Amino acid sequence: MRRALALAEQGLGRTSPNPAVGAVVARGEAIVGEGRHRRAGEPHAERIALANAGEAARGADIYVTLEPCCHYGRTPPCTDAIVEAGISRCFYAMPDPDPVCAGGGDAALRAAGVEVEAGLLRAQAERLLEAYITHRRTGRPLVTLKLAMSLDGCIATRAGDSRWITGPQARARVHRMRNRMDAIMVGVGTVLADDPSLTTREVPGGRDALRVICDSQARTPPDARVIAQDSDAGCVIATTDAAHETRVEALRGAGAEVLVLPDVEGRVDLRALMTALGERGVLSVLLEGGGALAWGALHAGIVGKVALFYAPVIIGGAEAIRGVTGAGVEGVAEALALREVTQTRIGRDLLVEGYVGAVES
Ligand SMILES: NC(=O)c1ccc[n+]([C@@H]2O[C@H](COP(=O)([O-])OP(=O)(O)OC[C@H]3O[C@@H](n4cnc5c(N)ncnc54)[C@H](OP(=O)(O)O)[C@@H]3O)[C@@H](O)[C@H]2O)c1
Ligand SMILES: [Zn+2]
Asked: Most buried by CB count within 10 Å: which residue of 169, 180, 261, 282?
């Protein structure tokens, strides 16, 4: 199952709206076949592993990171393939949270005489598929707020300088995070200040995620790097009715997709944006700032997880840009508390990760 999870991990950010799944066919201790789901529309992990095992699958065990599917989607059910291959035991790590499948795969296998054992390395599988689980439960992606800050919580100096606060190892880690995400999101303030390209250029074999800019008035310059760069991934400008038609047309002309959404107090309704992204199969979003959008997203309740990088430097200054701006809370008791907090040293920096209360549906 550990091998199956490692295979599944390679699919993160590539299989959406499907889950990243890995499968291993084994006879006792020996692996005789393995596979992973590569992208939606292509065969599921179980079918690839079974084909890889060939005749050796007869009487063997299969280890799958997610309950095998039992429905006709773009491909026929995996439970049929497992039964036809003559598998005797199926171990799967976690039940499928998708109501179309939930429990059905398990029942279909048992009905066909396959021995089934659920729950092997379940916690690891659920961590790996946390974005998929969030998406199937709420219809919205799992949003991870990532910021690179000084120890005193600044993301840029009073002059707007932010390059680079954290060290090369932390930046490489961010590129690996981007490589597993379906989308990366920033506010228009960051685009205007830094003109970032938001690529995964430091990851060998990496691919770019969909870029999303929250920009209520379509102030993004049409020649901004996020739009202009040569990439297979698209760029979405999320805006509102307040945006001038000429600006919207200029952005569309430059190759961006412009989504006109409802507003909340004049700014992009972030819940509506997450619903729109969820509908198009985006499971995961890495929100990379800046401070105003970070507050907007926390306040709107769309953030499920945070990844805060702290560099051992102090920037100071009342006019420096803080990681989270906006109105903030009034009483300490109202401060947003994180759950399941972990701390990891990355080079000279510290990464603090944690979950923000469950995103309610
Ligand atoms: N170190 C880091 O990790 C890091 C990361 C990112 C940025 N930065 C730095 O942060 C600075 C930019 O931060 P910022 O706070 O000025 O800008 P920002 O958060 O990137 O963008 C804020 C803008 O987003 C737009 N927006 C649209 N919908 C929104 C919503 N629902 N809630 C909040 N904002 C929404 C608003 O402009 P409209 O009203 O026009 O839509 C708002 O002014 C730059 O200096 C950059 O270098 C640092
Ligand atoms: Zn399947």
From this structure: 282
First to last CA, the chain: 31
Query: What is the CA angle 103-104-110, rounded to 5?
Result: 95
Distance 289 CA to ligand 1 centre (A): 6
Note whether 119 and 164 are same-domain residues: no
Domain total of the chain: 2
**Dist. CA 344 → ligand 1 center (Å):** 27
Question: pLDDT for 103-150, tens place per residue?
Answer: 899 999 999 999 999 999 999 999 999 999 999 999 999 999 999 999
Whether 25 contacts 59, CB under 8 Å = no
46 is catalytic: yes
**Alpha-carbon distance values, 319 to 161, 246, 310, 325 (Å):** 12, 34, 19, 11
Residue 2 pLDDT class (50, 70, 90 cuts): very high
Instruction: Name the token pair of 292.
Output: 């105003």
What residues make up the domain containing 18?
2-128
Ligand 1 pocket residue status of 216, Cβ below 6 Å: yes
Q: Is the CB of 217 under 6 A from ligand 1?
A: yes
CATH at residue 28: 3.40.140.10
68 lines ligand 1 (CB under 6 A): no
Ligand 1 center to residue 322 CA distance, Å? 11
**Cβ–Cβ under 8 Å, residues 44 and 15:** no
Render pLDDT for 53-73 as a digit per residue (tens, 0 to 9).
999 999 999 999 999 999 887
Please, how many CA atoms are within 13 Å of residue 350, restricted to the half-sphere of its CB? 11
Q: How many residues does the chain have?
A: 361
Mutate to test the pocket of ligand 1, among 149, 166, 216 (most ligand atoms within 8 A of CB): 216
Cα angle, residue 90 at apex, residues 85 and 93 outer, rounded to 5°: 135
Model confidence pTM above 0.70: yes
